[in-house]
Fold these 2 entries.
Entry 1:
Amino acid sequence: MTGFILFVLTNLIGLLVLAIIISAVMSWLVAFNVINLRNQFVYSVARVLDAITQPVLRPFQKVIPPLGGVDISPIVAILVLQGISRYLLPWLAEPLYRLVG
């Protein structure tokens, strides 16, 4: 049971990292006028990605100022999420493995 919970949490973090990457690339495409937010589909995708990623990115954006107009908070957030997935979750799951079996 603990292995399944660890699997689900690890994959949810992976999906969140993927959403952050897609959101960053999409913001660059909008900034360089490659895609247009007046397109209903593009606007819907951008809103969904913003709703998913902003709660994670906002604390980092409060602490890390934009450097030369470039927001590096997605990079820092991805590093923190990868650290949580790779080191913190297995460390927290180890006592649960012993408890549940």
Entry 2:
Amino acid sequence: MEEAGRNRSRLIFHPAGVFFALAALMAVALPWVWLLPLEDARLAHARLGLFGFGGMAISGYIMTAQKAWTGRRFPTPALFAGMLALGARLACLGFPEDLWPILLLSLPVALMVLWPVLRGRRWDKAPLAMVPLMLVAAEAMLLDRPDLAGLLPEAMAALVFVVGGRLVPSFLAEARRRRTLGEPRRPPLWLGAILLAAGLLDEGFTGTLALLAAMLWVVVRSLDGLRLGQANRMLCIGYAGLVPGLLAIAAARSGMVPHLVEVHVLTMATMGPMILAIAARVTMRRTAGAELRPRRRHLAALGLVLGAAVARAFAELSGQAPLWLAVAGGGWSAAWLLFLSAHVPALPRPAPFPLLSAQRARRPADAPSR
């Protein structure tokens, strides 16, 4: 029993350990899907990237966060849920036009994510917990409407905008409490969400102005945390990846850049840095009573992800696409291999607590009485 208790505390038995590792594996493989003898490599690339890499990262975060929301551990073994999620990705490569991998493998994982939140009656968290279920529906629709693949990166950017808009301030609030700093006045999330929605739905001049205003909203949120510790600086840089993503949307609409530039900036410069900044917190350096500190490989991975996004854009804009594609693919895969070089050795070790943040600073009122 004692050994079992130790086993349950190891990182590999936690959703963050399993799903962040699987998301990184999907990311490493993503640039090289084009080399496989697939009937529709474009569709496979989209499914592996948006629903594999993005979906696994989102599921891992929600499964981890639900313990704080409900006060209970995730009820399903993380390894079992991870095996289903990985099986769904492998099946989509072998059976690209079949619906059964989605229904038999992806759908159960999405329900596993949602059920604890519904059972705990955390109705305020239910919309976020339903995101994996919405991704399942989107992937099923994609089989009949492959043309939707070009719209899904914008939907993922909206998800990063909203989820990050709630997550980033919560981490920054703890950093301010450590420093006894007050909360600054910031434009509310609902205002940013309205601006983003208007920018995405209106492709005219008004929509472009709304996108620019949404970029400014992100900049204000991101600059706010650059001085609140290294881990929060990395998180805010990741969230600021929305700025080039939204700028790419506006540029593609005006014909300044090809649509594929927009797609890859949204996935590589927006999704990639944000996912990395959150997942890396699990294995950042921890000192009692101090804040998280990214490892050098975490910072190197962030630089490689951003550099790969730039190289991928050059592949569409320059006349030397093969060279820039190789640079982008190599940099992207190297970034996630660096992440795995810190994450995988931590899997058999006891999971840190809290998983995604340092131990909270003790309030004076919380100090033990003598």
